[in-house]
Write a structure and sequence with these properties.
2 domains; 58% helix; Alkaline Phosphatase, subunit A; mainly alpha; eight-stranded mixed sheet; 834 residues
Amino acid sequence: MAFRAFSLITANVLIPIAILVFASGFFPYKPFLPGLAQYETLECGPPPEALFDKVIFMVVDALRSDFVFSEVSGFNYTQSLISSGAALPFTAHATSPTITMPRIKAITTGSIPSFLDVILNFAESDTTSSLATQDTWLSQMKAKGSGKMVMYGDDTWLKLFPETFDRADGTSSFFVADFTEVDNNVTRHIPEELDRDDWNTMVLHYLGLDHIGHKTGPRSPHMIPKHREMDNIVSQIYNAIQTHDYLQSTLLVLCGDHGMNDVGNHGGSAPGETSPALVFISPKLKAVGRSFEVPAKFQEDFHYYTTVEQSDIAPTLGALLGFPIPRNNLGAFIPDFLPFWPNNNDRIQILLRNARQVLSIVTATFPSFETEGPLDKCDEASSSIEELACQWRWLKQAQQLMSGTASNYDMSKLIAGQVLAALTLLLSVGASSSIIFGSFRTVMPLISISLAYGIMMSASSYVEEEHHFWYWATTAWLTLLWIKNNRQWRNHGLLALVAINLLITMRVARRWNQTGQKFAGEPDIGRTFLSDHRTSLWAILCLTYLWNLQSLASTGFPRFPQFVAGAIATALATAAVTFKLAFTYADSPELLVGAVTSMAENDIGVSLVLRARIIFTGILIAVIYTLVSGLSHPKNSNPTMRTLHDLLFLFLITQSRATNIPLLLIFEILHYLLNILNLSLVELTTTSLLLQYASFFAFGGSNAISSVDLSSAYNGVSGYNIIAVGVLTFVSNWTGPIFWTSATNLMLLNLRKKGDRGPANAGLLLDHLSLLTVFTTCSLLSVMAACTMLRTHLFIWTVFSPKYLYSMAWSLGQHLCINMGAGSLLYWLGTKYM
């Protein structure tokens, strides 16, 4: 027993070490050329004259291309500028990961950011990803010394560019509950800045549209009004450019850092996420006489007008504003602007300088690269328009080559991480050896699941559609339990009824949220049916709260009289219901209906932050009372663990979207039905594992960064706190698995009462945790092996890298913190109160 416990503890201590060692080799910082670029001296003379001397760079976070260009748009004024020729529209392809920080890096440096920036993006306080020492178009504009640098909006810019801006006012990008103030804080500075002539660069980064997407999706009733609000800013700036002499040579760039998918999230590689709008605006653009049809026809792939790379912005701004292209740029000058230089020599020189700059990156990466690139002298091609096209084609080929180049993986760390993961697997097998080799036939389904899952990780399509594996495996397992119990039960009719209900509830859970990649936007119960049948939604929500209220009132607070216990439970439920009503009224009013709408409209005056704090505080007090009461009460008279489960249930309801709350009621029914079955320890562990993963996907989770739900990350939080927001975000996204950890604990305690493992039951928890660790280490090793073998695969950054991040969350968050930590604590408490 001591050896098994030591093996289990050692295995779990090694898990985070293996994860970090592998990650340090898989997500390294990419090297860059230091210093600021300088203009090279060419035989054809000085660089072409700049068209503009000021730039207003307006980023509307998550501005998907169709939001500006399609018929379903509130950017009417911007569309009028496009049709008049005063604006040039593009779709700027954003490579994965479609997260703000790496996108800003791509826009400002013209390079391809590291996937590690996904982690740094969420760690908002991080400063290690600063671009202070890198060459960017911002640093080039500052080096010109022709004016001050100002920035208003997302404070990611202030972290990336410390001591760059002379005037700034930053706002937190992660406070997604705010649709208005976060943008008003930017807009209030614009009139004052437009009246000044002491700046050459103004960066505006609006966050409200992105927050609306995260909370309520791209079809939210808040979305079109936000379009109009941003369009009015464009109108205000453009009118100032027309009327103020000192703004005549100002270029306004309107763009998104990324787009969003049909749910409103981003981070992955879906067409909507990788297709932000890009519009260059100035009265000067009318000189070439180009105009475009607006609104544009619907494009299923969101590619409106010409598609360029986001990295192309940096060299294009360099030519338009008259500064050298940043040294680490991989972008290609957008050729649509070439007609603004009537001299053919200027056009060739722009492309030649871009090509030579990219050539320096290519030769630094591939030392054996010979000088087969662009010509060294402008005059050799000055009379040939074909040579001009040749220069640009070479440039695009070099860009594709460098953009697709694999990261500088540290193979020694990749191998070391896998060796450590293999060691943890061996240790976990050793910890569970007695039960594996003692009843191999019983453990065979769990082993088969582990092996099949590991094999599946080597295929990108299976990773993207992983939920199908867990749905079908869970259904098959429940059917197998039916068959197994059918041999033992005398009342076959009752067993059949239980099994059929188990399969029906599981089927309903599977259809609740469409997830994955191929069918994520298809109709489902949560987002489609309940949105159209709001009365049914609120009826089920009321039933869920009443279920929890009845359970708390009947089993909790035993020292109080029944009516007092009922009053306390009612107060908790009322606080939770009113919070959810106010939350839905503020973020998703389209889900309200009838009397529910009236209740929400009349229940005003208390902030959402305070409401959340009230319910969290109430739950915490109830937990403390339950624990203290259980210690002082006679054994077997206080259902302490059931009360703790009900309080956790209430907390999980609070952290769930309104349309997902009924899923918790479904899981409660599943839990009740499973208690009827006579499950052994191995069967219970296998069931718990399957339902943890199946419930994660049923709640809408996936292996894409874009499925991370931030809608409840700020419940009770008034500002950005990395620990509080991190915990709340994890709970919101792992609600299903956390529920099943608690439910499993109750079933383990029931199994202990039955004496399934003898009077002492010393190895019950040890065997359960050992088997879970076997799967965790096996799956982690499989993902590491897949990432190593497929490190040059086309989908390494869009599929396998996000999967590794999710494996980290499952291993560190769900397995170590929830199953090993919280699960063990709950079981230990249960043994004290039994």
